[in-house]
Design brief:
By secondary structure, this protein is mainly α. It is built from ten helices and no strands.
């Protein structure tokens, strides 16, 4: 079974939220943020706030916790913007996204420790199903399906599909075994396949 290539396409569609903004002034915007320019902060939030919130929402499903993590992320962004190095179009967005993901993972480790301890990371491999058709499913519906996954499944799926992390990298980030990451991804994909088929059947 392929790794849901259509979910990667969905990610691209989601990022199109900010495509109508020009990226040529990212370097200048970063410079203004370093200077504490209030107008630049507003431009940054207007430009990337929606996308960054959507990224965070892939990991954090509780609305109040989502707000807290986003607030912490913005503080980290403004505190460490001096560390940002412009590497071409989209680099500011990519840098900000990495910070949001890092803060989301920190929340999951610190605030959800008990829940994570109950996850059976070393589950046996399960047979993988074929990819269901998802091209005609609205992006917001797909987002909700991902958010309905159990915490462990959702986290591994997000890191692998959306952040393009390897199983070795995921294992290091989450403190689990490499094989456990692969097992969690397999189970996440199977659950999503079931959700997609159920949704498709209700639309017929």
């Amino acid at each position: 079974m392929q790794v849901f290539p259509t979910f990667a396409l969905y990610n691209d569609r989601n990022e199109n939220i900010v495509k109508h903004y020009t990226d040529t002034d990212e370097q200048q915007l970063a410079e203004q943020l370093r200077c504490g320019n209030a107008a630049a902060m507003r431009v940054f939030y207007d430009r990337y706030g929606g996308l960054l919130t959507a990224v965070c929402a892939r990991y954090i499903t509780d609305s109040e916790s989502l707000k807290d993590v986003m607030q912490d992320s913005m503080v980290q962004l403004l505190t460490h913007v001096s560390d940002f190095k412009y590497r071409g179009e989209g680099s500011l967005r990519a840098w900000a996204t990495k910070i949001v993901v890092t803060q989301a993972l920190r929340y999951l480790r610190e605030e959800k420790r008990r829940e994570w301890q109950t996850i059976d990371w070393d589950v046996a491999d399960v047979p993988e199903e074929d990819d269901p058709p998802v091209n005609d499913i609205p992006p917001d519906v797909i987002q909700q399906m991902v958010r309905r996954l159990p915490t462990g499944y959702r986290t591994v799926f997000n890191l692998y599909v959306f952040e393009h992390k390897s199983h070795q990298e995921i294992a290091q980030l989450l403190g689990i075994k490499k094989d456990s990451s692969a097992s969690q991804l397999s189970r996440a994909k199977n659950l999503l396949a079931q959700m997609i088929r159920q949704y498709t059947n209700t639309q017929q």
